[in-house]
Design brief:
Number of strands: 9
Structural class: alpha/beta
CATH superfamily of the largest domain: HUPs
Distance between the termini: 47 Å
Strand content: 15-25%
Radius of gyration: 19 Å
Bound molecules: pantoate
Helix content: 25-40%
Shape: globular
CATH class of the largest domain: Alpha Beta
Order of helices and strands: EHEHEHEHHHEHEHHHEEE
Number of helices: 10
Length: about 290
């Protein structure tokens, strides 16, 4: 296996990508905040199916964390990340500094706001979060200039925000979505899972069970309001404080009727102690 190229400065990244493009190679991109796990590595493998060379980025983006969120304690594991990426078939790792990402400082950055879909759910519970995501992802697209970029379906609303951003700003790239990877007990893989105590870790799979129960109840004809109330109650009984447990259309509009065959997504965000977990389940209501 040839070694992964570690890139810390923009000139080096540009020279590498330019060289691949000169050779006619298609470049895939997987942006991350590091502390990588099998969920990320599966996105790298998916990128490989769509591209000849794969760049991953590791950048813990300060502009997408709220004042009371976990920016400073977000786990940073660069050595482990590089080894895992190399084993997953990643060719280059882009690790910009905050200064390289935000030359005028994070507080003076040109910010990007995606309207509409960021008003609800995580956008409502984490004000400014998706502005920070859109702001950094636009920069990353300009820096890496990939032909294809891969994002996980676990961050369902983030994926919608990025699709909107890429289309609206005419980035010349394709967005590909990767399926959520789960532990054997159904818990969606996430860097935040490691914050959970042993007791919380035992409770956490209740989120996935709740999503399955929401799907089954909608399919059985239970009114949406009842399904959402029952889901919140189940999460509360398990020990969570739920930010939301909702059933939506894929465009985040609220379904007025539970039409057979209609596409739906159940979305949950819930806090267990100090850790906030999100997950979702796409299904058809028929
Ligand atoms: O999903 C993430 O890890 C981050 O939100 C992203 C897309 C890398 C932007 O910082």
């Amino acid at each position: 296996m040839s070694g992964i190229v570690l890139l810390h400065d923009l000139d080096g990244l540009r020279a590498q990508v330019r060289e691949w493009k000169r050779q006619g190679l298609r470049v895939g991109f997987v942006p991350t905040m590091g502390n990588l796990h099998e969920g990320h590595f599966s996105l790298v493998r998916l990128a490989r199916e769509h591209a000849d060379r794969v760049v991953a980025s590791v950048f813990v983006n300060p502009t997408q964390f709220g004042p009371n969120e976990d920016f400073s304690r977000y786990p940073r594991t660069p050595g482990q990340d590089a080894a895992g990426l190399q084993a997953a078939g990643c060719d280059a790792l882009w690790m910009p500094s905050v200064d390289a990402m935000y030359p005028y400082g994070a507080g003076n950055a040109v910010r990007i706001h995606v309207p509409g879909i960021t008003d609800t759910l995580d956008g409502a519970h984490r004000p400014g979060h998706f502005d920070g995501v859109a702001t950094v992802v636009a920069r990353l697209f300009n820096q890496v200039q990939p032909e294809v970029a891969v994002f996980g379906r676990k961050d369902y609303q983030q994926l919608a925000v990025i699709r909107y951003l890429a289309r609206d700003l005419a980035f010349p790239l394709e967005i590909v979505a990767g399926d959520t990877r789960r532990e054997d007990d159904g818990l969606a893989m996430s860097s935040r899972n490691q914050y959970l105590s042993a007791e919380e870790r035992a409770i956490a799979p209740a989120i996935h069970r709740t999503l399955l129960a929401m799907r089954d109840a909608i399919r059985a004809g239970t009114p949406r309001h009842q399904v959402e109330a029952d889901a919140e109650a189940a999460l509360r009984a398990a020990g969570f404080a739920a930010d939301y447990a909702v059933v939506r259309c894929p465009d985040f509009s609220t379904p007025d009727a539970d039409g057979a065959g209609a596409e739906r997504v159940a979305l949950v965000a819930a806090r267990l102690g100090r850790t906030r977990l999100i997950d979702n389940l796409e299904f058809d209501a028929g």
